[in-house]
Amino acid sequence: MELLLILNKFILWCYICICYLYSDHINAAWFVFTSLAYLSINMSIYLFKKTQLKYSGIWLSMILILAASFQVDPFFMLLLPMNLYEFFSIYINKKWMLLILLMLPLAVISHSLHPAYFLAASFHFMSVTITEQYVQRAAKLESALDTMRKDIHRLTKSLNDYYEYMKQSQYMLQLEERNRLAQQLHDQIGHAMTGALIQMEAAKRLLDTNSYKAKELLQNAIHISKDGIENIRTTLKHIKPRSEQMGVNRVKLFIEEMAAQHHRHIPLVCKGDLEIITPIQWKIIYENMTEALTNAMKYANATVISIEIHVLNTLIKMEVKDNGKGADKIKKGLGIIGMEERAASVNGMVIVDGTNGFSVTTLLPIQKHEPVQT
Prior knowledge:
- Helix content is about 65%, strand content about 10%.
- The protein has helices spanning about 1-20, 30-45, 50-70, 80-90, 95-105, 115-205, 210-240, 245-260, 280-300, 335-345; strands at about 270, 305-310, 315-320, 350-355, 360-365.
């Protein structure tokens, strides 16, 4: 703001110098002296830090302008509006009142100076007012930006704390699961193996003296061992998640992340017996769904992207469909070619349709498992 005031004063002073050079005045020494005094006083105003000294400099400058306008050159009166604005803007906030105060000297100056004074006062008032508005707007934007920085820093910290909490929670869950598994193995399998070992030790001692009793003890040990092995199988079966649970949960997690990141509605529909989908088929379904969903987010301009996994009698259907702009002519890129190659690896296929939105359908044959001969 101070730089603008200095620039306005310098421009008007240059204009006064040009007018003086083309006038008939001959008191050049007094003009130079008054100009230097004015420039010195107004430059010192912006060097003072104390408000009282600034006010004194403004008053001295206005007195000098009034004296010079009557004794040296009337055009010095054009510099008065800037000092008036500097002084009264401290006490008056209403802009229209400031403009009226700047125009009051029109009542006492020569009529020949009225146009020039009016233009000088108006130019200074408008330039300073517009600059103040932009400065205030910039200050508000800077304050809002600073608030956003603080919010981002706070949210980042909260997110990091949340991730750290998730890691600790996951680690604690793993420890608890390991402890539960160790306790279960100790209570069920450990006791069974200990009982079987005792039976076999007793049978060893009775083998020479009482073979019948020894065989009975060995048979008991065999039964205990079989029960222990069956307990191991049951425990591992309960611990290991089913393939369809792993596949569906992985798909749901990815869809939730994409929906939250891109602010899109992505419904998921699952139909049929998902248990018959093999792990390799789940891998193909997940990778093709990821590719199709990512492409829809980038190019479709869609508001809804629906995903359906449907297990039919002879095949598995996975469709990703959006309500976007679609495509009249489909050009297969690396993404679609990659989806086709993945599906073809298990004798499946991919169908792409660009009418009424865009859809990518992956078809995989259901693998028939022959019973194992024992």
